[in-house]
Amino acid sequence: MNDAVSATAPHIPVLLAEVLDALAITPGEIHVDGTFGAGGYSSAMAMAQAQVFAFDRDPDAIREGQVVADAHGITLIAGEFSRMVELLAERGIARVSGITLDIGVSSMQLDRASRGFSFQADGPLDMTMSQDGMNAADFLNSASEEEIANVIYRYGDEPRSRRVARAIVEARPLERTAQLAAVVRRALGHKPHDKKDPATRTFQAIRIHVNQELEELERALDAAEELLEEGGRLAIVTFHSLEDRIVKQFLRNRSGGEGVGSRHLPERAAGPQPTFAKPAKAVRASEAELARNPRARSATLRAAIRTAAPISSRSSQP
């Protein structure tokens, strides 16, 4: 695929209609797209007459997305979505009506071999979304076997993580995605007819670790709780269980859904007022969307509405 993104090429993000339905945009409202990417959600919000502030920590997305942003009147901000409170405050924005997050790696990043996210094409072993700091090669060539195994197990759910980590350490130094993929495939065994490449879990795990994706998500959820006005809407699309579990637990906790405890134990003191109403039921892609976009198969949308309750000290807890 060409490393240039056409400004005129349509980008239809996953669950777009469902996200817009959850956001229920009223013209003139301020909305945040925490993950601009190719600008699909942001453009749709702007077309619904929202004032849109969009974030991305990837310099490529910022540089190439400016044409789309200018065309739709979107304010494009370079930076992590976890810093949205601070970065919006610099622009005089303290409250917003909606926040959307599309979690994980973008198609643009996956499709570019030069970014090092994919095992399907050879490229430098990078995987950094912000294109700075520790990259995948730095981590794999310096970390201990135990640390590598723990990362692959924790973030990739790879049951044979120790075998993979041992093979990686023995093969160091690693500098290319094709090298890493070959090492993992040899360690785990790979048959051409296998439905899933054995390198999938390892690449996912290293990417999540290098970019601190789960920690960023947790901070972004706290930021959204702070920024949303009463009645403000939060819509989050995730693509695997680690992310979805964090979002589901956050919304459960913040909507007062932690459970009432046992009737055999002393009654607990009333907790903080819920900062979100009971979340809507999780939404997944329709068969029609799956036929158009197979990537939507693993997508889950969770949405909730901000109440008037103030943020409590609980919100800073993991």
From TrEMBL:
<dbReference type="GO" id="GO:0005737">
    <property type="term" value="C:cytoplasm"/>
</dbReference>
<feature type="binding site">
    <location>
        <position position="81"/>
    </location>
    <ligand>
        <name>S-adenosyl-L-methionine</name>
    </ligand>
</feature>
<feature type="binding site">
    <location>
        <position position="109"/>
    </location>
    <ligand>
        <name>S-adenosyl-L-methionine</name>
    </ligand>
</feature>
<feature type="region of interest" description="Disordered">
    <location>
        <begin position="255"/>
        <end position="318"/>
    </location>
</feature>
<dbReference type="GO" id="GO:0071424">
    <property type="term" value="F:rRNA (cytosine-N4-)-methyltransferase activity"/>
</dbReference>
<keyword id="KW-0808">Transferase</keyword>
<feature type="binding site">
    <location>
        <begin position="39"/>
        <end position="41"/>
    </location>
    <ligand>
        <name>S-adenosyl-L-methionine</name>
    </ligand>
</feature>
<keyword id="KW-0963">Cytoplasm</keyword>
<dbReference type="InterPro" id="IPR023397">
    <property type="entry name" value="SAM-dep_MeTrfase_MraW_recog"/>
</dbReference>
<feature type="binding site">
    <location>
        <position position="56"/>
    </location>
    <ligand>
        <name>S-adenosyl-L-methionine</name>
    </ligand>
</feature>
<comment type="function">
    <text>Specifically methylates the N4 position of cytidine in position 1402 (C1402) of 16S rRNA.</text>
</comment>
<feature type="binding site">
    <location>
        <position position="102"/>
    </location>
    <ligand>
        <name>S-adenosyl-L-methionine</name>
    </ligand>
</feature>
<keyword id="KW-0949">S-adenosyl-L-methionine</keyword>
<dbReference type="GO" id="GO:0070475">
    <property type="term" value="P:rRNA base methylation"/>
</dbReference>
<dbReference type="InterPro" id="IPR002903">
    <property type="entry name" value="RsmH"/>
</dbReference>
<dbReference type="Pfam" id="PF01795">
    <property type="entry name" value="Methyltransf_5"/>
</dbReference>
<keyword id="KW-0489">Methyltransferase</keyword>
<feature type="coiled-coil region">
    <location>
        <begin position="207"/>
        <end position="234"/>
    </location>
</feature>
<keyword id="KW-0698">rRNA processing</keyword>
<keyword id="KW-0175">Coiled coil</keyword>
<comment type="similarity">
    <text>Belongs to the methyltransferase superfamily. RsmH family.</text>
</comment>
<dbReference type="InterPro" id="IPR029063">
    <property type="entry name" value="SAM-dependent_MTases_sf"/>
</dbReference>
<protein>
    <recommendedName>
        <fullName>Ribosomal RNA small subunit methyltransferase H</fullName>
        <ecNumber>2.1.1.199</ecNumber>
    </recommendedName>
</protein>
